[in-house]
Design a protein that fits this description.
Layout: H1 3-25, H2 31-43, E1 46-47, H3 48-55, H4 59-71, E2 75-79, E3 87-91, H5 93-117, H6 121-136, H7 139-142, H8 144-148
Antiparallel strand pairs: 1-3, 2-3
Helix pairs in contact: 1-5, 2-3, 2-5
Length: 150
């Protein structure tokens, strides 16, 4: 991989993210809200640290976003029955309904990307997963907040 490959990877990520964000914003969401609700509908109640990791957000930003989502009745908080000190976040009925609409917008973008890639779409998924897993072990080296904790 050379400098141009890294630049192209960044450009493709930015373009795909922008296209997804535009599609979701047209439906009243953003990528972060969509990621959060996707996780909560799939997994059920989750603690904030799990949600933060899935949504690729730092805790302060996630906390503010979850507060807004609670105010919009998209999610709700409840004490964990196993550990009353821990708070779990759940998707509300309204959140599930919103997610269904947002998933439709996201699926349209995914279809566009599959159309661009043609038969190589599955290959790209495999390569990105391999790259992500390979870099995951060294992610702390790229995250100054994680590096401070060492």
């Amino acid at each position: 991989m050379n400098d141009e490959s890294l630049r192209l990877l960044s450009l493709a990520e930015r373009a795909a993210t922008q296209r997804l964000d535009d599609a979701l914003r047209a439906k009243g969401s953003g990528i972060d809200q969509w990621r959060i609700l996707s996780l909560l509908v799939e997994q059920g109640g989750c603690p904030m640290n799990v949600v933060a990791e899935h949504a690729l957000l730092l805790a302060p930003k996630l906390s503010k976003l979850v507060d807004r989502m609670v105010s919009a009745n998209l999610v709700f908080r409840r004490a964990d029955e196993q550990d009353r000190r821990r708070v779990l976040i759940f998707a509300s009925t309204r959140g599930r309904q919103a997610l269904a609409e947002w998933d439709t917008a996201a699926a349209e973008v995914q279809d566009q990307l599959r159309e661009i890639l043609g038969p190589d779409a599955g290959l790209l998924d495999d390569l990105l997963r391999r790259l992500s897993n390979g870099l995951g072990a060294d992610a702390a080296a790229f995250d100054p907040l994680v590096a401070e904790d060492r």
